Structures are given as structure tokens and as C-alpha cells.
Automatic annotation (TrEMBL):
Residue ranges constituting the Methyltransferase FkbM domain according to the UniProt record: 22-86
GO CC annotation terms, alphabetical: endoplasmic reticulum membrane; Golgi apparatus; late endosome membrane; plasma membrane
Protein name according to UniProt: Methyltransferase FkbM domain-containing protein
Gene Ontology BP term (one): endoplasmic reticulum to Golgi vesicle-mediated transport
Organism domain of life: Eukaryota
Length: 134
């Protein structure tokens, strides 16, 4: 069923809770193996530079990014869905990880973050500092 998403080792109906009395008698907890974002990157892209990463994980963006070891990975741009969280909380996390919000964004419910170490010092950007793909 495409209406399910993984969270903390269990499958839950999107927007529902296993603790809802109306759902609990019809619900079944299924243990699944879960990996952190750090573990996924270490497994599938060890030591590789990542130009673009999109984080849209149904209300778990803050929990994921607030524990993400930014210093372990070279990432140029990250988009993060912020529909379900405080923009200020995510800003604190991303800036703490060495990212600044890209100008001329957000796009819909996503914010775009640029790695500060990959920007030219002292240069002000009015648009993202990369050339669009042709």
C-alpha cells in the first residue's frame, strides 16, 4: 500500500497512529530494518562528494537532520521539506551544520541550503551559485 511510510522501525499509516483506538485493533506492528541517513551515505556513497541531496521524509526531517553528522560528508546543496516543522528550528540545524539558506527560495514547502565552504568568500549571491543543467 503506497499510503505507508517507515518511522522508527515500524510501518505506520501516513498521518495515523498505532495508538489510535479505532486503528489499533486493525493494525499490526511490523519490525523493519532502518538505517540512519549517515549509514545510507556511508554504505552507498562512501567518501564521495554529493552535489545535491533532497530530504523529504514525511515529518522526520528535523529528527534526521538534527542528528546528521554534517562534518562526515561533502554535500553542496540540500533541500529539506519544512511543511511540518518550524523554519527557525531547521535553520538552526542547517546553519550549525555549515549551510546557509539559498537566496530566492523556498520552493513550495522545501528550503534549499548551500554548503558555506563551497561559496566564494565575501561574494553575495542573488541566485544559486551554479549553472543550471542544459
Amino acid at each position: 500500500n503506497s499510503n505507508y511510510w517507515g518511522a522508527r522501525g515500524h510501518l505506520l499509516g501516513h498521518g495515523n497512529s498505532i495508538h489510535n483506538p479505532k486503528l489499533s485493533k486493525h493494525s499490526k506492528i511490523i519490525d523493519v530494518e532502518c538505517w540512519t541517513l549517515d549509514e545510507i551515505l556511508e554504505h552507498y556513497a562512501p567518501g564521495q562528494h554529493i552535489d545535491f541531496m533532497d530530504v523529504d521524509i514525511e515529518s522526520q526531517e528535523y529528527n534526521t537532520m538534527s542528528t546528521f553528522p554534517f562534518k562526515n560528508h561533502s554535500i553542496r546543496l540540500i533541500t529539506v521539506e519544512v511543511n511540518h516543522i518550524s523554519q527557525k528550528k531547521m535553520q538552526s540545524v542547517m546553519e550549525g551544520g555549515g549551510f546557509v539558506q539559498a537566496p530566492m527560495f523556498p520552493i513550495g514547502g522545501d528550503t534549499v541550503w548551500q554548503n558555506k565552504s563551497m561559496l566564494e568568500p565575501g561574494k553575495r549571491y542573488s541566485k544559486p551559485p551554479f549553472k543550471p543543467m542544459q
